[in-house]
Design goal:
The chain has 576 residues and is an alpha+beta fold. The protein is built from 7 helices and 29 strands.
């Protein structure tokens, strides 16, 4: 990937010739970049924030990005001042060339502090007939840190979201570094606690005002899962940092000062599983959900045609490894073929949300009305401290078509049928006829196998790939029109696996670890917000359609070319 950007250059006034040469070089470079980026991308205006939940005395960062040719006008930020104070504002222009494709965009970055508590909204912005998305912000009461000494330049704070918890329940440990001076070369100890499972779930920077003084805050959030009951101690953490400006040309760093910060240790009680809990597996969670979807409409279920049932179990405050397997599906008249469950952990500032998705292919052997049994999961609600049960209701559907003819078993009541003697006489004749029929079928199958093998060897290998690509592309477009998130996700994974077989994977995360496409990452965030969050976010279909169209353009620009792939410009040599 070639990443090209243009930055402001400070020109020395010592040599006029050098000034002229630098100006000419920059002008030529900008001209080449503008020519290369002429095709561009479709105009789009998007707004994002680094956090949507904060306290009244904290800050957030808003980024407004416009892709396409920019004009002299700018978005109107006056509406923000109704609910927010604008601390700072900066603008940057970017020109990039990635794998031969160029893009240009302009981005405004604003630091905001809310003016009141409650649910606030960052409004939509308008620019060149484009409209950005509105963003909801939840503002709580101003929180006070453990130290209120205004003369301290830096200090540490550790906050726990619970005073006591059950074994295997999630505990959020928030470690905050407050500073009023510039710090660099910060080294910190990782959080380590025996007999626990620890994962770092979030890290962010923001600003908090304490007694009217602005403090820069660096916050790290850990999710801790104790494996045994008893006393749990959060140890004291040590931070080492350097105060003062960083001078790369000074070996002694005389104008700097090294400081050591140490937090206070905290202790809390871990209680065992309640005796009155009746579930088969201990599941302490803040929320647990069961969802069901189908590969296609079960109303059109026919005998002999497979249909896939997708059941997703998700739990807020539990890892995917803690979730139990779903009960096996056994219904008379249905053949089932379960796949390996796909487990995934989603980390956020609220902790970990684990999910397990089980897909089962179902084939009906005879028509009729079927009912899939309900699925019940018993768990412990850590919010209300009560046992709860989440149930996926029973599901009924009708299967159409004709059943295969099945020969009834012979009578076994000891009575002799009237034609039993005739059947015994003709048994040898029918046995010989059956052997001849089987032999002729075997010869015919051998002939078909050899003929098909010759056809496959003579056919071009690209024919099957092209046919499959057209088929999955049509399925992806159809899923996008239907607007069902789980079907869109499945169709996109199938399309990516065929389009880029070298990056084949079972989910979007695995595939994008190889491809590293920004479109896939944003699509994954949109779908995950709709499918797996406890309070599902509405699917931004317009943005999703734009991202998938960009992926299809990638397919068009690379799949139809006849020239071999060339190495990227200025890219480092590949390791052999």
């Amino acid at each position: 990937m070639v990443n090209t950007s243009c930055k402001q250059t400070n020109i020395s006034n010592n040599n006029p010739k050098e000034q002229l040469i630098q100006l000419l070089c920059c002008s030529v470079f900008l001209f080449i970049v503008l020519i290369c980026s002429a095709p561009g991308h479709a105009d789009a205006l998007t707004a994002t924030v680094d956090r949507d939940k904060l306290a009244l005395n904290e800050s957030l960062t808003l980024r407004l990005r416009y892709e396409g040719s920019i004009k002299a006008n700018q978005p109107d930020f006056n509406l923000l001042q109704r609910d927010f104070e604008i601390l700072s504002r900066r603008q940057s222009n970017q020109y990039r060339m990635i794998n031969g494709e160029t893009e240009s965009f302009i981005e405004w970055t604003l630091s905001l502090v809310p003016l009141k508590e409650g649910k606030l909204f960052i409004p939509s912005f308008h620019l060149n007939n484009e409209v950005s998305n509105a963003i909801a912000i939840e503002v709580s009461k101003a929180s006070q840190p453990s130290s209120t000494d205004p003369n301290r330049q830096a200090f540490l704070e550790i906050e726990l979201d619970k005073k006591q918890l059950y074994v295997q329940e999630q505990l959020l440990v928030k470690v905050r570094l407050y500073t009023t001076v510039g710090l660099h070369d910060i080294s910190m100890e990782p959080l380590q606690i025996p007999d626990t499972h620890i994962e770092k779930v979030d890290e962010q920077n923001y600003e908090r005002r304490i007694n009217g003084v602005a403090h820069a805050v660096h916050e790290i959030i850990y999710a801790v899962f104790p494996e045994s009951s008893g006393t749990l101690q959060i140890p004291a953490l040590n931070y080492v940092a350097i105060v003062g400006p960083r001078d790369p040309f000074s070996l002694l760093n005389r104008n700097t000062q090294r400081i050591r910060l140490r937090s206070k240790a905290k202790t809390l009680n871990v209680i065992p599983r309640p005796k009155n809990y009746t579930g088969s597996q201990w599941l302490p969670a803040a929320e647990l959900n069961l969802k069901q979807s189908w590969s296609h409409d079960p109303k059109n279920f026919k005998v002999g045609e497979p249909i896939s049932r997708i059941v997703t179990l998700s739990a807020e405050g539990l890892r995917a490894a803690q979730l139990p397997p779903l009960p096996a599906l056994q219904v008379e008249g249905l053949k089932t073929y379960p796949n390996q469950p796909q487990q995934e952990d989603q980390a956020s500032s609220q902790g970990i949300t684990g999910s397990s998705t089980e897909t089962t292919a179902i084939v009906a052997t005879k028509p009729g009305k079927y009912q899939l049994p309900p699925i019940s999961i018993t768990w412990w609600d850590s919010k209300t401290q009560q046992q709860r049960t989440t149930e996926l209701p029973a599901f009924q559907f009708q299967v159409k078509g004709a059943a295969a003819v099945i020969t009834p078993p012979p009578q076994s009541n000891g009575e002799t049928a009237p034609n039993q003697t005739v059947a015994a006489v003709d048994l040898g004749f029918w046995r010989t006829l059956a052997i001849i029929a089987i032999a002729s079928h075997l010869l015919w199958l051998i002939y078909l196998f050899k003929t098909r093998k010759k056809l496959l060897t003579s056919r071009k290998p690209d024919d099957n790939t092209s046919s499959s690509l057209h088929r999955v592309t049509a399925q992806l477009k159809q899923a996008l029109r239907d607007g069902i998130p789980i079907n869109i996700q499945k169709a996109l994974i199938n399309w990516l696996n065929i389009r880029w077989p070298e990056a084949k994977g079972n989910n979007l995360g695995e595939i994008n670890r190889v491809l590293d496409f920004k479109e896939i990452a944003e699509i994954q965030n949109l779908l995950n917000g709709t499918l797996y969050l406890t309070s599902p976010q509405p699917l931004d279909k317009k943005r999703l359609d734009t991202l998938i169209q960009q992926l299809l353009k990638r397919q068009k620009s690379t799949a139809t070319g006849d020239q071999p792939n060339l190495p990227d410009l200025f890219s480092p040599p590949r390791a052999k």
